[in-house]
Write a structure and sequence with these properties.
Blueprint: H1 2-11, E1 19-24, E2 29-34, E3 46-50, H2 51-59, H3 62-68, H4 70-84, H5 88-97, H6 106-124, H7 143-149, E4 159-164, H8 170-180, E5 187-191, H9 192-205, H10 212-223, E6 226-230, H11 237-252, E7 256-261, H12 279-288, E8 289-294, E9 311-313, H13 318-329, E10 335-340, E11 346-353, E12 356-360, H14 361-365, H15 371-380, E13 383-389, H16 397-412, E14 416-421, H17 425-428, E15 432-433, H18 435-439, E16 458-459, H19 461-477, H20 480-503
Parallel strand pairs: 4-7, 4-8, 5-6, 6-7, 9-14, 12-13, 13-14, 15-16
Antiparallel strand pairs: 1-2, 1-3, 10-11, 11-12
Helix pairs in contact: 3-4, 5-8, 10-11, 11-12, 15-16, 16-19
């Protein structure tokens, strides 16, 4: 019986292949199914059997085995059934069956096969990886143990690095995977911006130690062995220099990384300062993670319903925006407020009331602020009214970078954005291009003088790649579905506060 189970486990990786057949619970073979043609199975009476398992059944006379070992076969069938009830792939099909997700994306199914592979390996190796939060490491002391423990102790399970275009469902798929993991595991899901802010804050706390990054890595791994980072992107030289040594320590401590990104590993921090010091991190990332691209021509964020009246295009709309802001805060009176961010810094809010904050664009994106300030803002406020978002170009390149970060933080916190702008989300970034896009533009000729060139054109790789994500997220943030979800979240939070007040 153990041999049968071992053979089945060995054949599971072939599930990633596209060709499969369906077997009913009673063993009758059904017609072939091709994941490449977006086949989805919703009936609980079926499970997916790949080609390798089909050959196993035929070549090893599985029917004869089940007759000879009827009791063990029944146990095996129950075991397989229980296994298929858990994991991101099963949950994905359930959500499609319930109408919660759009059906028919073979690229997402292919990615879910990778996530299911990782899920199964983690479940099987949970003890070895020390994923259980209640697991107690044996106390080891003395010179010999210190020598032994100084050696790398990589996890036997490789992580997963998912990358692809905007709106392909990377975050949704990672969250779906994360939510299926046992609650008692040492796991953490965090946005990359927030993660790096925490790292720099911890480094500040351990300043003066011989190797503070080793201490920080120890604290991170004590809290979570499985680390899920959303929107992995490196734009800052300080982050780039920290990441290589930090993750060398983390991987040595058994960390398993699951990350999503718009960029392939080799494209991370492309063209950045001192990138040669960052390259070893890319090598270790590819060594410790399976790299998987999500290819899809569909931006699911743009499939949501149309505008609901929170994004207004035009000039001289200051009075109108303040009127809408007052409607949101109701009977409250907006006053200047102060928000505490990391390391004791304070962010001044021009106007705030009832969870809503009001800022002119210049005060939030033309000043030396960053992700830490924006995360601090949305710990206190759930809605931002932003006045006067400009068209971006070479003259306000820094503000464009901050605006991209701001939209990422709004989206991560599921906050609401009420704003006025000089153009549509697409118009805002029309003058932002990547280096390759700039090279493809029509070259200057004798009949096309320099004065006819767009002097405000901004050639910036990071902004050029990030703009599509920002446009997509601005579209979703202004959709009917997003705003309904936000309203439901506020209502649930209010009910919880009212209930706590009654109990008190």
């Amino acid at each position: 019986m153990r041999n049968v189970l071992r053979c089945l486990r060995q054949s599971r990786p072939a599930f990633q292949r596209r060709h499969c057949v369906l077997f009913s619970v009673n063993g009758a073979e059904e017609s072939p199914c091709h994941f490449g043609k977006s086949c989805h199975i919703h009936s609980s009476a079926y499970r997916v059997i790949d080609t390798a398992e089909t050959n196993f059944f035929k070549n090893h006379s599985f029917v004869a085995i089940t007759r000879a070992l009827s009791t063990d076969a029944a146990k095996l069938r129950n075991t397989v059934t229980e296994t298929t009830k858990a994991g991101p792939l099963v949950e994905y099909e359930r959500r499609i069956a319930n109408g919660e997700l759009v059906e028919g994306d073979a690229c997402q199914v292919d990615t879910l096969s990778e996530l299911q592979r990782l899920y199964d390996e983690l479940v099987e190796s949970a003890d070895v990886c020390q994923l259980d939060r209640n697991y107690e490491k044996p106390v080891r002391s003395g010179w010999l143990w210190s020598r032994l423990l100084s050696h790398p102790s990589y996890s036997p399970v490789k992580g997963l690095y998912l990358f692809g275009g905007v709106g392909t469902g990377k975050t949704m798929l990672m969250d779906l995977f994360f939510d299926q993991l046992p609650s008692n595991w040492r796991k953490k899901r965090i946005h990359f911006h927030d993660f790096m802010l925490n790292v720099h804050s911890m480094l500040q706390k351990h300043k003066g130690l011989s190797d503070p990054l080793d201490v920080v890595a120890g604290e991170i791994s004590d809290d979570a062995i499985l680390l899920c980072l959303d929107e992995f992107m490196v734009t800052d030289v300080a982050d780039a220099l920290v990441l290589n040594r930090l993750f060398r320590h983390l991987f040595n401590k058994g960390i398993i990384l699951v990350a999503t990104s718009n960029r392939a590993p080799d494209k991370l921090y492309e063209g950045g300062l001192q990138r040669d010091l960052f390259l070893p991190f890319i090598a270790s990332l590819k060594e410790r993670c399976v790299v998987h691209e999500i290819g899809s021509s569909v931006d699911y964020r743009k499939m949501t319903s149309g505008e609901e009246g929170f994004y207004f295009v035009g000039g001289d709309l200051s009075g109108f925006l303040k009127q809408r802001f007052q409607q949101l805060i109701g009977e409250g009176t907006a006053t200047p407020q102060e928000v505490e961010v990391v390391m004791g810094r304070k962010l001044q809010v021009p106007l705030g009331a009832n969870g809503c904050a009001y800022f002119p664009f210049e005060e939030l994106c033309d000043r030396p602020l960053g992700a830490a300030d924006y995360f601090g803002l949305f710990k206190k406020f759930h809605t931002l009214a932003l006045e006067g978002i400009p068209i971006f170009g070479l003259h306000n390149k820094s503000a464009a970078h901050r605006f991209v970060t701001l939209v990422d933080v709004i989206y991560e916190n599921k906050a609401r954005l009420l704003c006025t702008a000089e153009g549509t989300p697409q118009d805002l970034f029309e003058k932002i291009v990547t280096i390759s896009e700039a090279k493809n533009m029509a070259p200057r000729t004798s009949s096309r003088s320099r004065k006819n060139d767009d002097s405000n054109l901004c050639v910036d790789n990071e902004l050029g790649f990030a703009k599509d994500r920002t446009i997509s997220r601005l579209t979703e943030i202004n959709s009917k579905e997003y705003l309904q979800h936000h309203a439901a979240m506020l209502s649930e939070k209010k009910e919880s506060m009212d209930q706590n007040a009654l109990e008190a």
